[in-house]
Amino acid sequence: MQQNIHTEFHRFLQRHDKESLLGQRGIVIWLCGLSGSGKSTIANAAERILHQQGRATVILDGDNIRSGLNSNLGFSDEDRLENVRRIAEVARLFAQQGMIVLVSAITPHGLLRDVARGILGKDFFEVYVKASYDTCERRDVKGLYAKAARGEVAHFTGKDSSFEEPMQPELVIDTESRDLDESVDLLLQSIAQRISH
Fold first, then answer.
1. Nearest alpha-carbon partner for 173 in 38, 27, 35, 34
2. Where does the chain have alpha helices with state H?
3. Per-residue pLDDT of the chain (197 residues; tens, 9 = 90+)
4. By 3-state DSSP, what share of the chain in percent is helix, strand and coil, each rounded to 5?
5. Are the C-beta atoms of residues 70 and 27 closer than 8 Å to each other?
6. Which of 142, 132, 125 is nearest to 174 (CA)?
7. Which end is more exposed in the chain, N or C (fewer Cβ atoms within 10 Å of the end residue's Cβ)?
8. Which helix (H) or strand (E) holds 145?
9. 35 neighbors 138 (Cβ within 8 angstroms)
């Protein structure tokens, strides 16, 4: 199959052309953490501020991606790996166009985050949105923890399937000790130098 593929990358406008036009560098801000930790809420709030600042952004939300591109995947280890691989490849395409990409995905295992980092390289900015299982269970914004407690959700992260805390993320946002505004400010301050062009 590979011998019949003839890529066109060499004829495209290059990344620096896109970044110069947008006045920013492409980056992938990968927010991982338990369901209900605040990943999507922080990503949405951060994107609105970046938009007001004239920045070009896109959000790749785990649930949204699973409703379309990855709708054929479940939550087995193999499917989680493929889910992350696809998200990372899409994020890479956007980053190469100079976009600020906010990925909100549980990404429960170190191996999965290593896969994303391997695909994205220097564009990968790992953010651990930290909150305990008990705290997320109390929040239960999507009703998933209640379903998991009743045995209605298979492979639920933190209960049936483990969550491995990131060893060396670029940033940790503890949403048990910070409110939304503080969390978003911390995120934006941490990435400001990386997106300046």
1. 38
2. 15-22, 39-52, 62-66, 77-96, 110-120, 133-139, 144-149, 180-195
3. 677 777 777 888 899 999 999 999 999 999 999 999 999 999 999 999 999 999 999 999 999 999 999 999 988 889 999 999 999 999 999 999 999 999 999 999 999 999 999 999 999 999 999 999 889 889 888 888 777 777 777 777 867 678 899 999 999 999 999 999 999 999 999 888 888 75
4. 50, 15, 35
5. no
6. 132
7. N
8. helix 144-149
9. no
State how far the Cα of 56 lies from the Cα of 107, in Å rounded to an integer.
25
Q: What are phi and psi of 5, to 5 degrees?
A: -100, 125
How far is CA 5 from its chain centroid? 30
Looking up tokens 């280890």, which residue turns up?
Answer: 77
Q: What is the pTM of this model?
A: 0.91
Distances (CA, A) of 29 to 93, 115, 140, 165: 14, 15, 24, 17
DSSP letter for 6, please: -
Residue with tokens 């483990």: 162
- Tell which residue, 168, 187, 175, 195, has the closest CA to residue 36: 175
Q: What does the chain come to in residues? A: 197
Q: Indicate the residue type of 75.
A: F
